[in-house]
């Protein structure tokens, strides 16, 4: 149980829950969910450790940056000499970690220095919010503890608020199940000239990873404690250690700032708010969710406002790129109504079409619409998780995905009505989840292909999830036929780049032909353009 210095933190976390939900959680589960361990102070604080206690390289997971602002960027690392162990191989002490930011990679033009604490309670992760930087500027950064110096990362700040920006290029990535292939796509992404990477969810998968890492077919066995589904905080921490140790993923983080949001697998497949996939008591799932959210924050370049409070984490947020783009990053898992019709692909019913159904939750819906109303950006971009546009099953059985926006059509309609009321002109929705590339026009009425096109949806394929895939899956022709607003469909793995300027947006879908072995080349799967003020995808 926590010491006296933790009491205010516990009370503050409990106040964040409504009374109805709080009363569903037993006292024991409450203690677990809300005291996963905040750093203590005074006599209860973890002792400061001597750097000499770190006898092997603690920067095995390298570094990352994220959420660029005009004068600030978030720098991340985690001390983990043994990354596959839940503790990372670190002693239970607090360590002071120095950081520095430079205008050049050799650190002859250092502009900012500081020290951050790596707390044992946060698994020795470091989240350094560096302020006082110049807008629209490239920087290099690194960390140091004792004799150990981290790899050098590259990042960049956003343009000044209200600045005229000529262009912006960003990449989309999602769905990277470790045991279903190699992260070769990330190796190629590391070499791209992009301003930022949006990761759209499923950064981690909760499923067991066997000794040979599945499709990777390792001959050196992985630890046995990875070979079961993640449930506890130790489970999630060890799994992040495995995922983040991949060298190609490290290369992508070293090269670009990441802007992240989650989907389901960072916690559990297809969960909805406080409803788990399987029939377990709600208090049991909330403890698991608290562990998953805690480990997510520990292992991502997220700022302090995103630090979780028990089983809650405010992940939706808004970033600006001068007057060119506004990014409204959504969380479509934590607040959603439970899926209708028992989840899966089902025929729509009165249950799924009910007005009370909401995917982002009522508060987040209004936050998004209010943000559009106030936006002064040319492009309003919505990075989120599950397919927004309608998808009719190519089998012709009338079913649609209850886990996507098709299972929440009233929520989608409210969003689109809010878009129309904002009188903005350039809507782009960014999506992951489905392990394929799509290019979709968002129609005012999906039953009428001639209805107004409201915007475009860019769906990026997975990094590895689903295995090698195929350029034209078996349902390729039928999918395009039954969904005339679907302008592109490709089933290989990869990522997507989007370039915005005053004239329009160019979307390039990029593929690797296989992930079952490393070293795959990069190919262009498709290239499209949507004109500013005239939404609709056309081949480029």
TrEMBL record:
Domain PhoD-like phosphatase metallophosphatase: 170-506
Phospholipase D N-terminal domain span: 62-157
Pfam families in the record: PhoD, PhoD_N
Superkingdom of the source species: Bacteria
UniProt-recorded name of the protein: Alkaline phosphatase
Species in which this protein is naturally found: Nocardioides turkmenicus
CDD domains reported for this sequence: MPP_PhoD
Alphabetical list of Gene3D superfamilies matching this protein: PhoD-like phosphatase (3.60.21.70), Purple acid phosphatase-like, N-terminal (2.60.40.380)
């Amino acid at each position: 149980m926590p010491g006296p210095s933790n009491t205010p933190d516990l009370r503050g976390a409990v106040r964040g829950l409504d009374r109805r939900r709080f009363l569903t959680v037993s006292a024991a589960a409450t203690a677990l969910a809300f005291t996963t361990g905040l750093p203590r102070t005074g006599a209860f604080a973890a002792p400061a450790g001597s750097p000499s206690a770190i006898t092997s390289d603690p920067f095995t997971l390298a570094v990352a940056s994220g959420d660029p602002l005009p004068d600030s960027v978030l720098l991340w690392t985690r001390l983990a000499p043994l990354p596959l162990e839940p503790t990372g191989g670190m002693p239970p002490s607090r360590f002071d970690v120095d950081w520095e930011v430079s205008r050049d990679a050799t650190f002859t033009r250092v502009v900012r220095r500081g020290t951050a604490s790596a707390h044992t309670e946060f698994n020795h992760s470091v989240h350094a919010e560096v302020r006082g930087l110049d807008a629209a500027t490239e920087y290099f950064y690194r960390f140091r503890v004792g004799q150990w110096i981290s790899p050098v990362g590259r990042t960049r700040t956003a343009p000044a608020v209200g600045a005229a920006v000529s262009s912006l290029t960003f990449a989309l990535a999602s769905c990277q199940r470790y045991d279903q292939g190699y992260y070769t796509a990330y190796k190629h992404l590391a070499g791209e000239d992009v301003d930022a990477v949006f990761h759209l969810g499923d950064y981690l998968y909760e499923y067991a990873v066997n000794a040979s890492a599945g499709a990777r077919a390792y001959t050196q066995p992985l630890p046995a404690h990875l070979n079961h589904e993640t449930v506890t905080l130790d489970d999630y921490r060890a799994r992040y250690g495995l995922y983040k140790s991949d060298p190609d993923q490290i290369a992508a983080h070293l090269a670009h700032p990441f802007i992240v949001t989650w989907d389901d697998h960072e916690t559990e497949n297809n969960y909805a708010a406080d409803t788990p996939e399987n029939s377990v008591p709600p208090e049991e799932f909330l403890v698991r969710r608290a562990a998953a959210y805690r480990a997510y924050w520990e292992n991502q370049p997220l700022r302090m406002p995103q630090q979780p409070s028990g089983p809650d984490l405010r992940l939706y947020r808004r970033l600006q790129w001068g007057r060119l783009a506004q990014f409204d990053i959504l969380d479509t898992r934590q607040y959603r109504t439970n899926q209708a019709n028992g989840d899966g692909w089902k025929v729509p019913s009165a249950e799924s079409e009910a007005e009370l159904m909401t995917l982002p939750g009522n508060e987040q819906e209004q936050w998004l619409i209010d943000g559009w109303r106030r936006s002064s950006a040319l492009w309003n971009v919505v990075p989120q998780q599950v397919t927004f546009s309608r998808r009719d099953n190519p089998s012709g059985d009338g079913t649609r995905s209850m886990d996507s926006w098709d299972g929440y059509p009233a929520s989608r309609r409210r969003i689109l009505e809010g878009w129309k009321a904002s009188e903005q002109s350039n809507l782009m929705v960014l999506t992951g989840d489905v392990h394929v590339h799509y290019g979709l026009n968002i129609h005012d009425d999906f039953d009428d292909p001639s209805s107004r096109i409201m915007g475009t949806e860019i769906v990026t394929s997975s990094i590895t999830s689903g295995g090698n895939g195929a350029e034209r899956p078996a349902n390729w022709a039928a999918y395009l036929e039954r969904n005339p607003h679907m302008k592109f469909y490709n089933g290989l793995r990869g990522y997507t780049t989007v370039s915005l300027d005053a004239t329009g947006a160019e979307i390039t879908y990029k593929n690797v032909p296989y992930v079952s072995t490393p070293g795959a080349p990069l190919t262009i799967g498709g290239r499209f353009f949507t004109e500013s003020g005239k939404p609709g995808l056309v081949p480029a």
